[in-house]
């Protein structure tokens, strides 16, 4: 059952402080994973998804991130934007960087909109009378059947790349042969989209 009490104390709610950040960091590692190739083949993902570099000495796979962690990242960023005097990085942005920051928040809002409309919870919120209130009050303490987020964290720990170099994934640096790249600033929407082949030293 969700606890929808308005003034409920939660380790993930404000006011922001170091302990709240530690709690968020624990449930939101945001570490790149290497998922096994057989699992990748079950996804309707881009055929050109980045392969796990061989220098990592891991089984063949693709680099990935759990979708739910991206959604939680978006929730956290929106929450942080409500406390600009504590999370002050946005105040130090140039006008161009600030535009990118707003675009990031817009992206987060629309990703969460798509997720919520996709799942479309049909659970019902009922109402109760409260003393001193002239209108019925919605009872947000709705019962849900939840998946185990601990299972997600366990898989993230199992597949997470723990010894990623500081330079991360640099195209062509480690002699991985050909890679496929796409024009513009966004990955392909169509999983079957074909990009241009890029070899170490340039495109072909």
Automatic annotation (TrEMBL):
InterPro entries: UstYa-like (IPR021765). GO terms for biological process: mycotoxin biosynthetic process. Pfam families: UstYa. Residues 182-204 are annotated as: Disordered. Belongs to the ustYa family. This is Tat pathway signal sequence. It comes from Byssothecium circinans.
């Amino acid at each position: 059952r969700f606890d929808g009490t308005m003034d409920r104390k939660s380790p993930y709610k404000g006011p922001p402080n170091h302990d709240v950040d530690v709690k968020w960091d624990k449930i939101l590692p945001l570490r790149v994973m290497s998922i096994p190739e057989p699992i990748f083949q079950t996804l309707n993902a881009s055929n050109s998804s980045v392969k796990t570099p061989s220098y990592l000495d891991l089984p063949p796979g693709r680099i990935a991130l759990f979708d739910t962690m991206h959604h939680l990242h978006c929730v956290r960023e929106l929450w942080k934007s409500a406390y600009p005097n504590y999370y002050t990085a946005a105040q130090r942005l140039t006008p161009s960087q600030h535009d990118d920051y707003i675009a990031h928040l817009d992206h987060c809002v629309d990703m969460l909109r798509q997720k919520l409309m996709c799942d479309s919870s049909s659970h019902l919120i009922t109402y109760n009378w409260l003393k001193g209130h002239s209108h019925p009050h919605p009872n947000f303490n709705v019962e849900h059947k939840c998946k185990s987020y601990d299972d997600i964290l366990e898989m993230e720990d199992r597949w997470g790349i723990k010894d990623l170099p500081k330079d991360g994934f640099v195209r062509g640096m480690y002699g991985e042969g050909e890679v496929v790249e796409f024009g513009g600033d966004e990955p392909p929407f169509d999983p079957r989209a074909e990009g241009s082949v890029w070899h170490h030293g340039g495109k072909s």
